[in-house]
Amino acid sequence: MSDALRGAILRGEFLPGERLVEAQLMTRFAASRFNVRAALQDLSAEGLVETQRNRGAQVRKVSLDEAVEITEVRMVVEGLIAARAAERIDTERASELDEIALLMRRAVESGEYRRYSDLNQRLHALIREIAGHRTADRIVGTLRGQLVRHQFVLSLLPGRPQQSLPQHERIITAIRDGDPKVAEEAMRDHIASVIEALRSIDQLGGPA
């Protein structure tokens, strides 16, 4: 039940601030009240859901200030993951990275920015898989979940894919070369640029 509700929130099927009514969730997910409440507690612990007195549970809103703080933590943890991936890379996984890099470049060149955003998610997931660092993977999964709405807005920023593509290519090259130091540095530089982009949304009057 927790996985199903988490997936629905991350896909944007429930919006920030939207109430999560137990009876409706029971019907939608064919779950018992006990399982629904347990799922809400799990997602509350992850920061995806918040429970307010007399109002029940709702999808938690994340302000831009908090989104920046969360991304600063991501920068450190994902840098560690990239370094670990560079230490563990093999020929098969290097080929997978090459394929994603090629598809990302084609997506940018053809203006398929939604596809580029999907490939971006796939790349970061593959790097976490290569790294095999379960604790860091769990932390990043929680942090990224809280940022789903802001990540969607970022993906639509004019010029963002063209800016991030060479950053992703640098990360991929460093991991393929088996260079943990450069891989970590490249990942941290990439996520630092995400923080700059988030701040630019704030200046443009983006979502609070």
From TrEMBL:
Q: Identify the InterPro entries for this entry.
A: GntR_C, TF_FadR/GntR_C, Tscrpt_reg_HTH_GntR, WH-like_DNA-bd_sf, WH_DNA-bd_sf
Instruction: Give the protein name, as stated in the record.
Output: GntR family transcriptional regulator
One Pfam family of this chain: GntR
Keyword Transcription regulation listed:
yes
Q: Which CDD domains match?
A: WHTH_GntR (cd07377)
- The scientific name of the source species is Paractinoplanes globisporus
Keywords tagged on the record: DNA-binding, Transcription, Transcription regulation
| Residue ranges of every copy of the HTH gntR-type domain listed in the record | 1-62
Instruction: Output the Gene3D superfamilies linked to this UniProt entry.
Output: GntR ligand-binding domain-like (1.20.120.530), Winged helix-like DNA-binding domain superfamily/Winged helix DNA-binding domain (1.10.10.10)
